[in-house]
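Chapter review. Work through the record for Ubiquitin-like protein before attempting the end-of-chapter questions.
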Amino acid sequence: MATPDSDISELTEAQQLALQQYTSVTDQDVRAAIPLLRRSQWNVEIAVAKFFDGEGPDLVAEALAAQNVPPPRAPRQENLQQSLLHGQVNALRSQNRLDAAPRVVPQPESQALPQPSLILAIIFTPFKLLYKILAVPFRFFAYLFPFLRIFPRNPTTGTLRSVNTSGRRALSPADAAQRVQREFTEEYGENSLPWTSQGYATSLDQTKREYGFLLVILLSPEHDDTTSFCREVLMNAEVTSFLNDPTNTMRVWIGDLRDSEAYQVSTALKCTKFPFSALICNTPEISSTSISVVSRLTGPMTASTYLSKLRAAHAARASQLETGRVAHNLQNSERNLRAEQDQAYERSLAQDRERARQRREAEAAAAAAEKARLDAERNATLLAEKRKAWRKWRASKVKPEPGLEEKEIVRIALKLPEAARVMRKFRASDEIEELYAFVECYEDLQAGITEEVEKPEGYEHEFGFRIVSTLPRVVYDVKGGGTIGEKVGRSGNLIVESIFEGEEEEGE
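Structure tokens for Ubiquitin-like protein:
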């Protein structure tokens, strides 16, 4: 559920656009991005700088700076001597002060305006020319009277918003960098400059992570000294060798002012003279995460002068960056070591959990097997008791042997498995089950156990044998029913076979 601080529906259209642009660069969660943008007065560049470089202690001053409002000055009283001393101190501080390297936020490709079709371009050409003609006096009037807001101004720089009229197609930062490299090679020939195929913001982030140097070179094709600077300075063998030296950890980004990102970089770096070069690196004396412009090389100069200034600025910072790089690598090594130790610990925990799970499963399986065995034994004991009780009950229900006075009599000779031949008379009207019951209860009948017992409840008796005749072989099944007279006749020689033994013999 969205909180009031992170409800996007309550934001204005401009604030939603700033939020989308900020999250596309930083990939930060919206709930954390909205409070940071509010503290930055919805200025995307200041918010991105805070995200990567950390927030300063004075949030009010930053908010006022975002609105281009100078902070209020406290009244001060001083004499002439104090003013002179204060001016000298400020001059020394301005000479030694390092400007923070701005992080330019490129426009997302999804927000880039598509190029109109040829037909629409031809139709709107007269209106475009008329707008250019009328815009010149209005801009001059706005320059004379800046307090009149005739044209929209850029909230970050305060300058009038300009429209790209060069006809140069807007590309992504990476594609624009590759286009500058291709145009430079076509114009000045093959070279061995250490080109970077990434945008300014990406190059700045990599330089910050690697504790290296970033040389930003801004070129204006309309400037008179651009050609001589590129041919005589940038393509100089010594300059190229210095830039390509891996021990210098130098990264070079060259931008064309006709591109949107390069123009924003020139505005952020306060570029006022061409050719322009700026050397950027980490400045740990300011803060552990700050990156600043340590040297600016502006205007035309010879290759030796350019190289000497570049070497001097590089040498002044190389030792500090090397120390920071070593400390950063040591931190990364420790972090990687801790990560490996954590992974090994997690693997050990996973193995222990797997062993414990297997042990629990084995114990549960053994307990289930033991329970099943006990249940089987208990069921077998209960079944044997019920079977014994049923035999006693059925033995008491077996009809006695008929006497000589009865006429319908069947004489049967039974061959029992564990006894000799038994002669028994049955009534012809007795069911075949009576014959099976006599065989099942023969031992009890012989022992004279005829006590009255109750039939066990929930027990269905199954006979473990069958009665067959020899010649011809006929099986008298108890489930088929019928009387003894119908099945056997007047007399018969029958054999009692065990069901399992009979099945084995038939299988053989």
